[in-house]
Amino acid sequence: MCGIVAYLGENNAIPLLIDGLKRLEYRGYDSAGIAFIDKDKKLATIKRKGKIKNLEKEIKEDMFSNIGIAHTRWATHGEPNDVNAHPHTDCKGEIAVVHNGIIENFRAIKDFLIKKGHKIKTDTDTEVIAHLIEDNYRGDLLNATRMALNIVEGTYGIAVISSKEPDKIIIARNGSPIAIAQNDGNYYAASDASAIIGKSESLYYLKDKEICVMSREGLNITTLDNIPVTPEFQKIEFDLSQIEKGGFPHFMLKEIYEQPEVIMNTIRGRIDVENGDVRLNGLKDYKEWFGKDVNRIIFTACGTSWHASLIAEYLIEKLAGIPVEVEYASEFRYRNPIIDRNTAVFVITQSGETADTLAALREAKKKGANVFGICNVVGSTIARETDAGIYVHAGPEIGVASTKAFTAQIIGALLIALYLGRMRKLGYEEGKTILENLLKLPEQIQTLLKEHDKIEKIADNFRNSKNFLYLGRGLNFPIALEGALKMKEISYIHAEGYPAAEMKHGPIALIDENMPVVFVATKDSIYDKVINNIEEVKARRGKVIAIATEGDEDIRKVADFVVYVPKTIDVLVPILTVIPLQLMAYYLAVYNGCNVDQPRNLAKSVTVE
Ligand code: F6R
Q1: 305 alpha carbon to ligand 1 midpoint, in Å?
Q2: Does pLDDT of 174 surpass 80?
Q3: Identical fold at 3-236 and 242-448?
Q4: Distant-in-sequence, close-in-space partners of 235: CB < 8 Å, separation ≥ 6
Q5: Is residue 267 a contact partner of residue 411, using CB atoms and an 8 Å limit?
Q6: Cα–Cα separations (whole angstroms), residue 158 to 66, 99, 149, 353, 446
């Protein structure tokens, strides 16, 4: 949510910052801007509403600077327009700040600054930081920034430059990620690694309340209380090709097609088919506790990751026999969750930066829980703050709508369910069967992806639909929710997901000849009941799209359209059934001319509560 890039070094900062912003555009695209020190050692600021291409048009070829900061915005305070775009400056236009996060006490600070004669120009919370730095400036930018940050309350990742000290960038963090990197006299900072890839092989994520001075002498990191910090740089784990589209028209489509490979990456080195077991080094310090003591598990997450949690609930209860509850992370700390010594709390997150999930994690830790992560982004805040956990290794997910990370999360949850199950009630044969079938999934997904033409044609029939209903039972219920979420977020078509049997308790009133109903109706123990639900929709002239098991000819008699998924065992079904739903949302978004990778009002990692 909001992207920040900063550069100081030998090269022209301006194209470099624009390139970095483009790689971060998925984090927010309401406006973009840069600030740099120009040839006359003055501060220059350019900012524009909308996408980075609007900003790019304002950049003249002869503009040069070797120091600058840049920002792509996801608006929280103040509407998206040129004025509210970052960077924000002080009264004299000598200090510029870019910020990711929310300053919670900005109103009080604003009043204080106005009383002191500061001229506030924007509706944003961020602008007060620039004025506070100005107010505290006594010839030392670092010190003034420190003093300003001691006054603000809330979350921030910031970068500051000033014409008063033109060879310096100050970077600081509290709650919003900032990575820094260096290479041969060039220094970079960004709100995530994708802006830095290709510039340096390693990076350091600033910790909360750390502040860094980048200058031609190097990096100097301290805490806000001025205690020196020795940064431990870590290797960047992915390369440039992973954050490019690789011939696909959209990142989302590329990421859908990456799912077979993602599954292999998630399970690599972790499965022991012969013994029907899994190895999870990330949980090994807690193995005995999981084996003997844990008697209840809570999963907490947001959005798509919450849907993956619902699947985790089903898998763990079925395979390990441990009761599981699933909570929206945004609700978790606003009630009084009951946690005791034998409760394990798991958070699922792609980005590892979601503010609501982080707040839930911290609440669970405060209550004494051991907290574990199922996380994609290595080194992210949540990955660091959990006691232990597993990475899902889906690789960078750039499309704002989560696809491959969801699949990887389900696989991660399955590995955990097997791990717990094999320590408890799950037999070796059953474990082995699951793993053998798991290994077939990548090829089965490849087969399913070949059906893309058919799914595209089905989607074509519903170009003008204003609503969709998604229904499924058991493990296909979270998939119905996920299908509806994908449809809403990228094609802006209203969609709802329900357990199929719930339909008759209300949603059935919506059904008429204009209502497409997607049934996730694979052959399982409740298949017949789902067929009854389909009949109920047909009786009311609804249009039925069924996601069914290969070979199920009967379903053709009741459904208007059928997409077949290959046969697999029950616990693996959701990994196949979600794929046609991802594709259908994708094609409808394309038909409707929507920006698939950057849907309106959304951002990739939601770092505000
Ligand atoms: C939907 C989507 C969001 C995220 C949610 C949690 O496609 O991407 O619903 O799943 O914001 O994000 P993470 O997983 O990064 O915590």
Answers
A1: 6
A2: yes
A3: no
A4: 201, 202
A5: yes
A6: 19, 4, 10, 16, 43
pLDDT in tens, 375-427: 998 888 999 999 999 999 998 898 989 999 999 999 999 999 999 999 998 99
Q: Taking Cα atoms as reference points, which of 500, 485, 495 lies closest to residue 530?
A: 500
Residues above pLDDT 70, as percent of the chain = 99
Model confidence at 508, in pLDDT bands (50, 70, 90)? Answer: confident
Q: Is the CB of 357 under 6 A from ligand 1?
A: yes
Residue 519 pLDDT grade (very low, low, confident, very high; cuts 50, 70, 90): very high
Helices (H) and strands (E) in the chain, counts: 18, 26
**Lowest mean pLDDT segment, chosen from 22-36, 304-318, 511-525, 581-595:** 22-36
Q: Which CATH architecture has domain 451-609?
A: 3-Layer(aba) Sandwich (3.40)
User: Looking at this protein, which amino acid is placed at residue 220?
Assistant: N
Would you state the pLDDT for residue 1?
67
Which amino acid residue places its CA nearest to atom 8 of ligand 1?
Answer: 402
291 Cβ neighbours under 8 A, 6+ residues apart: 423, 424
Q: Is ligand 1 within 6 A of the CB of residue 350? A: yes
Query: Tell me: the pLDDT tens digits for 267-318?
Result: 999 999 999 999 999 999 999 999 999 999 999 999 999 999 999 999 999 9
CA distances for 307 relative to 38, 434, 504, angstroms: 49, 21, 23
Given a contact cutoff of 8 angstroms between Cβ atoms, the answer to whether 279 and 336 are in contact is no
pLDDT digits (tens, 9 = 90+) for 186-200: 999 999 888 888 899
- Rounded to whole angstroms, the Cα distance separating 347 from 330 reads 12
Nearest-CA residue for atom 3 of ligand 1: 303
Please calculate the CA angle 198-200-206 and round it to the nearest 5 degrees: 120
CA of 157 relative to ligand 1 center, distance in Å: 20
Convert the pLDDT of each residue in 200-245 to its tens digit: 999 999 999 999 999 999 999 999 999 999 999 998 877 777 777 8
Alpha carbon distances (Å) from 515 to 99, 206, 538, 545, 587: 44, 50, 11, 11, 18
Q: H or E segment at 442?
A: helix 428-449
- Quote the crossing angle between the two packed helices 476-491 and 303-320, to the nearest 10°: 170
How many angstroms is it from 303 CA to the middle of ligand 1? 5
Residue extents of the structural domains in the chain: 3-236, 242-448, 451-609
Fold classified for 242-448: Rossmann fold (3.40.50)
Q: Whose CA is nearest to atom 10 of ligand 1?
A: 304
Residues annotated as catalytic (active site), given as ranges:
2, 604
176 vs 78, 192, 212, 381, CA distance in Å?
19, 10, 15, 9
Contacts of 404 (CB under 8 A, 6+ apart): 255, 256, 258, 259, 262, 394, 395, 397
Residue closest via CA to ligand 1's atom 5 equals: 303
- Is pTM beyond 0.85 here? no
Q: Within 10 A of 514 (CB to CB), how many other CB atoms are there?
A: 14
CB of residue 349 inside a 6 A radius of ligand 1: yes
**CB 606 near ligand 1, within 6 Å:** yes
Matching CATH number, 3-236, of 3.40.50.970, 3.40.50.10190, 3.60.20.10, 3.40.30.10: 3.60.20.10
Q: Give residue 400 CA to ligand 1 midpoint distance, Å.
A: 8
Average pLDDT over residues 364-373: 95
